[in-house]
Amino acid sequence: MSLLSIALSAGRLKSVPRRWVVVAAATFGMLASFGMTTTIAVFMKPFEDEFGWLRADISFAYALLSAGAALGGLVVGWAFDRIDTRIIVVFGALVMAVGLSGLAASSDVATVQWIYLATGVAGFACLYTPLIAVVGLWFDRGRGLAMGIVTAGGAIGQGITPLLVQPMIAMFGWRNTSMMLGASFLIVLAPIMLLVIKPPQDAIPTAAARAESKSWPLPPAFSIGWLGLAAVFCCASMAVPLVHLVSLLTDRGEAITMSGSLLFVAMLAASAGRVVIGLVCDRIGSLAGYALAVALQSITVYWFVPLQSHVALYLLAVAFGFGFGGVMTALVLCVRAAVPPRVAGFAMAVVGLLAWGGMGIGGYEAGYCFDVTRSYTIPFLGAALAGLVNLCVIAALWLHLRYHNSILVWLQKRYPRSLVSTA
Fold first, then answer.
1. C-alpha separations of 155 from 82, 113, 147, 159, 280 in Å
2. Is 411 within the bounds of a domain?
3. Rounded to 5 degrees, what are φ and ψ at 193?
4. pLDDT at 18 over 90
5. CA-based angle 239:147:124, to the nearest 5?
6. Closest alpha carbon to 10 in 165, 168, 192
7. What radius of gyration do the chain's Cα atoms show?
8. What are residue 372's phi and psi, to 5 degrees?
9. CB of 278 within 8 A of CB of 272?
10. How many Cβ atoms are within 10 Å of 310's Cβ, its own excluded?
11. How far apart are the first and last CA of the chain?
12. Does 137 score more than 60 pLDDT?
């Protein structure tokens, strides 16, 4: 029996509704793809030790991956509405497998940067946007829980990668480790992605009509503009610990097992945060849930620098991880709530472009500031400041939503011949 037949058969199992099969496959895809992005943080010290590269140059590979994911996401968002989702996600898995295998043969920083750029454009982008968008099509009620589970896969991937890969590097070297990771993407991830299918066409119009009636009152362009701006600062903040936390701790002389386990604890908390915040969004609204998660992330992000106690660091990792994890789920739900389903794929891609741009800015800025100051104090302080700006953007969006109709009435009175009323 072919892999395609297995995938279709699994989707028809009466004991497991097809939509939950899609959720399970999408969750695993998020785990693997976000785990791949974390390899930059894990390989940073081996690269530095073997080649003497600057951390800004290594971090720039993450910036390029983020930029590639952003640009590739626009194309993928357009393609999502036009071709079979399985073609996109399987292709993305194969590209990531090739990228990790090619990394094993690299010996100069430019090659490493190009590999991560290509992997972002044609690998990660082909998984991230479709996996989130396809789950959104399967669910109307309980979407927050479903999105929380899927996005939790990404947090688990980011947390488990250092915990598993660091011992592999110590045992086999970073080149062999990269090759083994590439093989696992080819053998395991690509077949599982065949389970990621859209709902039957006759089920989409009804769900779409319900979702259309629940969209925000703002025109989609305004909503996506606000959310995209928030995403830039949000992701610039979270990128600093994601890329540099392992290096921060190892610079202090902490054991590899400690730094890896701390990041794992943070991501384990993030996986819980994504599910819990998803449920919270189902009850109090996606924008309120997003503000709650951003506030928790912003309050905690800086304290990784001054705290020395292991107990305090692990407690901080739980708090930061919970907020960081909830941010992604809530932002995705905000996009789904803000626009009608007919433009959801493109809207997700635009916000994703700006979010990954923020990730790249945050990761590179932290590496550059470290090279200049030989300290992580300024980078992590900047992460907290970015979170504060993000909260201001969320507040402005809330005010726009609350007073949108009043603003329209005022503009129509002041400019009666304008086209504001048609916005």
1. 29, 24, 13, 6, 18
2. no
3. -65, -15
4. no
5. 50
6. 192
7. 21
8. -80, -45
9. no
10. 12
11. 53
12. yes
User: What b/e readout covers 79-93, taking b as 16+ CB neighbours within 10 angstroms?
Assistant: bbeeeebbebbbbbb
- One-letter amino acid at 163 equals L
Q: What is the rounded average pLDDT for all residues in the chain?
A: 83
Place of tokens 């968002």: 77
Tell me, yes or no, whether 341 lies in a domain. yes
The CATH number of whichever domain residue 80 belongs to comes to 1.20.1250.20
Which residues is 142 bridged to in the sheet?
140
Cβ(26)–Cβ(196) below 8 Å: yes
User: Is 7 part of any domain?
Assistant: no
Residue 410: inside a domain: no
What's the domain count of the chain? 1
Distance in angstroms (rounded) separating the CA atoms of residues 412 and 280? 37
Q: What was the pLDDT predicted at 87? A: 93
Euclidean distance between CA atoms 310 and 288, whole angstroms: 33
Q: What is the per-residue pLDDT across 167-194, written as a single tens digit (0 to 9) for each?
A: 899 899 999 999 999 999 999 999 999 9
User: What pLDDT is stored for residue 420 in this prediction?
Assistant: 45
Sorted by sequence, the CB contacts under 8 Å of residue 350 that are 6+ apart come out as: 74, 77, 224, 228
Q: Pick from 3, 110, 1: which is nearest to 58 by CA?
A: 110
- What would the pLDDT profile of 84-111 be if each residue is shown by its tens digit? 889 999 999 999 999 999 988 888 889 9
pLDDT at 10: 46
Cα separation, 255 vs 27, whole angstroms:
31
Q: Which residues contact 268 (CB under 8 A, 6 or more apart)?
A: 155, 156, 159, 321
Q: What is the pTM of this model?
A: 0.70
Q: What distance in Å separates the CA atoms of residue 363 and residue 66, rounded to the nearest whole number?
A: 10
State how far Cα 394 lies from the chain centre.
19
The position carrying tokens 């081996």 is 46
Which residue range is the domain that position 59 belongs to? 15-195+204-401
Residue 253's Cα: distance from chain center in Å? 30
